[in-house]
Amino acid sequence: MGNQINAKELQDAFLAAAVNLNAKKDYINELNVFPVPDGDTGTNMTMTILSAAAMVQEIAEPTVDNVSRAMASGSLRGARGNSGVILSQLIRGFTKELRECGETVDSLTLARAFNRAVETAYKAVMKPKEGTILTVAKGMAERITALSVNEEDCISLLGKVLDYGDEVLEKTPEMLPVLKEAGVVDSGGQGLMCVLRGALASLRGEKVEGSLTLHADSSAEGAPSLGTERVSRGEISTADIRFGYCTEFMVNGDHEFTDEEVEKLKEWLNGVGDSIVCFSDENVIKVHVHTNHPGDAFEKGLTMGYLSKMKVDNMRLEHHETLIKDASKLAAMEKLAAERKMAEPEKEFGFIAVSAGDGLKEIFTGIGVDYVISGGQTMNPSTEDILKAVEAVNAKHIFILPNNKNIILAANQAAELVTDKELLVIPTKTIPQGITAMIGYDSEASAEANRAAMTENIGSVASAEITYAVRNTTIDGHTIREGDIMCLGDHGLLSVEKTIPEAAKTALRKLVKEDSEIMTLYYGRDTEVSAAEALKRELQESFPGVEVELQNGGQPVYYYFISVE
User: What 8-state DSSP symbol labels residue 383?
Assistant: First the structure.
């Protein structure tokens, strides 16, 4: 080691990078500007790199080529959220250069790889913004280009480049006022530095402490009752019952399940319940979860294999009522339904939407969506998740509604990977935008005409999302305290209040216009129906010229999604 890096050193460095990011992910999550419970830059980046690390770790006889391919392929398919997709693109560009260099990497190759990484990542982002992970990456690329001419020792070179990267990161608040106001550096940029610091430590022969197993965060994913402390989560939660059904089943796969697959299932389960036990034994995964929606858990399991030993008990009854007794029959029915669906003639158009919550799923399927990917605010689906959904929809042209700004890049990335169908991304950033876009669909129009009409329809709706603050901060001149109620709009923070009704009314005074006709409230899983009905009455009194509708969304984390049209 010194002037060149060989394949084994590259493999070890990448795994150390993943370990270091995994160890720091909670800290990176805390750097998110908006203190909402779904601020998950660290988690998204970590899940992205761990997807690649699982593939890299399996290589018994490393070469620069096979390690580079595993790094690129694993991160590409595991990419989650904007930060994860950008990280995957940085890795993709970096490894493309490495694959052309032979069996060792020297300082000039590193310089070219840094520059190709930046070029690839910038191309992946429609409107690159300075003061982000891209700026940090670009700064390091420029510095390594200048230094590599005279510096041949790779470790010394990378040390200097990463020091400069830290300097650029510290300057990001000066480039983005919202970072300066919140008193933080860019979370994505910090994540990138954690990746590179881990890799450099390995190249120096230092041990990076941590693991390649993603553990659940300590932050709860559901909104707590106001005035109470948030519940911490471990492998098994012992909190008072919030989820009424004790759900158990076994997933039987056609291969030996990897730790990554099990951890991904755990992460998903954390979004729909608590008291989770999830472990594998060769080709079987055992699942126990307390949830309000057992069907969603079964459906998730069916994406990984057939189910057995399924059992659901209603914990709110004094005696445990067994709701499902014949597991094999249910699994067979599910399998038969799937086979019948695939046997149907290929349609011209199909639709995929991303949302969380039974109510929203029912709404989307009711307006014509073929496949709803469970995810969104609390769990960004990966590129691989989207590709599986595309495979399940038997249509020539498939429209996808991401319904979250952090999922659009992953959807675009999936569109580039699909070869036998056309995947068209409608850039919806909120649930109301997704619903409105679907209304713009015309079965008689062409795919391109529909894409244009559905995209145009997005602009006809204003969206708001009501949640709670998980920490103290200042944004857009608003002083925010932990537990405050925040209302986020399409373009930023709309209101900060102590109660949900006041936050809603303050925000809606900004959104409701003279020509506004309909306001729809989609209430979340932690909102009582009586509270939602009371808010509907208050808003109808406050905005008498607008018709107020109420729908059960069932979404986690957010008390309400609101649309104004």
Answer: H
Backbone torsions φ then ψ of 275, nearest 5 degrees: 50, 50
- Maximum distance among all Cα pairs of the chain, rounded to whole angstroms: 76
Closest CA to 136 of 84, 90, 75: 90
Under 8 Å between Cβ of 64 and 57: no
Please state, in angstroms and rounded to a whole number, the distance separating the CA atoms of residues 78 and 88.
8
Look up residue 547 and give its two tokens. Answer: 């018709």
Cα torsion through 391, 393, 399, 400, rounded to 10? -60
Residue 272, CB half-sphere, CA atoms under 13 Å: how many? 26
At 19, list the tokens.
Answer: 């370990």
Tell whether the model's pLDDT for residue 2 goes beyond 70: no
What's the rounded Cα separation, in Å, for the pair 224 and 84? 28
Asked whether the beta carbons of 516 and 547 are under 8 A apart, the reply is: no
Least confident of 24-38, 186-200, 418-432: 24-38
Which residues contact residue 202 at a Cβ distance below 8 angstroms, ignoring those fewer than 6 apart?
A: 9, 12, 13, 15, 16, 17, 208
Tokens of 30: 């805390």
Residues 6+ apart with CB under 8 A from 136: 165, 168, 169, 172, 186, 188, 189, 192, 193
Taking each helix axis from N to C end, the angle separating 133-147 and 107-124, rounded to the nearest 10 degrees, works out to 150
Give the chain's radius of gyration (CA, Å).
24
Please give the DSSP secondary-structure letter assigned to residue 554.
-
Q: What pLDDT, in 10s, does the model give residues 144-165?
A: 999 998 888 999 999 999 999 9
pTM to 2 decimal places? 0.64
Q: What is the dihedral of CA 174, 180, 183, 188, to 10 degrees?
A: -70
Closest alpha carbon to 501 in 513, 489, 487, 491 = 487
**Angle made by CA atoms 418, 420, 425, in degrees to the nearest 5:** 45
pLDDT band at 81 (very low <50, low <70, confident <90, very high): confident
Phi/psi for 350 (5° steps) reads -135, 165
